[in-house]
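Lab notebook page, bench 4
Experiment: in silico fold of construct C2
Operator: M.H.
Input chain length: 153 residues
Purpose: comparison with the prior construct
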Amino acid sequence: MKYLYYGWALIGLLSMLIISCDKNKNNNPYIYNELRDTIAPKIYMSVPVQNDYFQYGEDIHMVGNVVDYEVSNKGGQLKDFNITIYDWDPIEDTIKGVLYTKNFDVDKKEGYTFNEKFHMLFGAGTTFCKLKAITHDYSTRLDSSVVFFSINP
């Protein structure tokens, strides 16, 4: 009977250890916890600049970085990051189509630096573009950045 009591006590102790390892209840300051994440990710795009213009056939570089912090001075975890360039009608403020899109592999990274390029060989008149970058972290916070530019003959 004594051994049966110790067996049940051991099972109870192991159950408590397993429950305390639940990652959603994790209070370990060295392990990311989305419930503690109070800071949204941030996109910093240096190129292209707002209202920039390019020539058909010219490389259009997209340069910048995206970072995420869980709390002050502690890295968070990015979930996704995407850049899309739209063919944009500035008069109607509508999207006419997608010219470029890329999803970056940032899963569980604290930050990511990007340097991409895109080019259009030709077009009929000026092509107005809307570049939109968007990122999310695991606490469902997001940031987005929009840059307008044009491609000219």
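Observations: The chain has a mean pLDDT of 86. The radius of gyration is 24 Å.
Next step: discuss at group meeting.
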